[in-house]
Amino acid sequence: MFNLKTILTLAAALLLSVAGAHATVRTETGLTESAAGKSETYRLNVPTEKEIATTQIRLVVPAGVVISRFQVTPGFTRTVKKDANGLVTEIVWTGRVAPMEYARFFFQAKNPATAGEVVWKIYQTYSDGSVVAWDDTNPAEGPASRTTVK
Fold first, then answer.
1. 15 pLDDT more than 90
2. What domains does the chain contain, in order, with CATH numbers?
3. Looking at residue 61, what DSSP letter applies?
């Protein structure tokens, strides 16, 4: 059925996927693509990758994405920043995600009307005050999450 080489390749891929875990935005069903102009439920997945707790998650809303509502996340306080037009530009969740845990934050949004790539910038703060930037500042260590809008 499976030979040793196949098993080792699958094991290595699994280890790389676990080691490469990071904060991501996906559709509710886990996709990295959606339709232009579509109302979508998104999930922000944030694993704690250090031996100390995550205490804050900040999401910068990409231009053209219109946030309409949030799912309540028990144990977290949410603050929202809006622009002069009343559009949500940034969300900050404050709470605690212990080591070896992850949190998911759900929100509804309308995609941009035109096709393209939406880049989600995420900033993860730990209990020691350090911040991990998932924003492409250093793509090898902190890649931004992307959604392809078709």
1. no
2. 22-149 (2.60.40.2230)
3. P
